[in-house]
Amino acid sequence: MEQTNLAIDYCTRAIKIDPNFSQAYRLRGQVHSFLINPSERLKNYEKALSLFQAQGYHQEAENMKKLIHAHKYFINLRKENAQSKN
Prior knowledge:
By secondary structure, the chain is mainly alpha-helical. The protein has a single domain, classed as Tetratricopeptide repeat domain (Serine Threonine Protein Phosphatase 5, Tetratricopeptide repeat), CATH 1.25.40. Helices cover 86% and strands 0% of the residues. The protein has 4 helices and no strands. The chain has helices spanning 2-17, 22-34, 38-54, 58-85. Helix 1 (2-17) packs antiparallel against helix 2, helix 2 (22-34) packs antiparallel against helix 3 (38-54) and helix 3 (38-54) packs antiparallel against helix 4. It is flat and about 45 Å long. It starts with a helix and ends with a helix.
């Protein structure tokens, strides 16, 4: 757990130095996925997507769109499962 928090801290520092560092947003989103923090993961993925698009990294943007789509799908699936248990 300490290493994941350290990774988030390093990514956050990198973003403060360069707010357009799309890779740092993507990595921070991935670290949040290990912490099961869906809202932070989605915010970081969406920011990375926005930056990849603005910077002309079309393939990376497409990959982020797929990650966001999968993330939203699994969040909805989790909600449905939770509701069916109640």
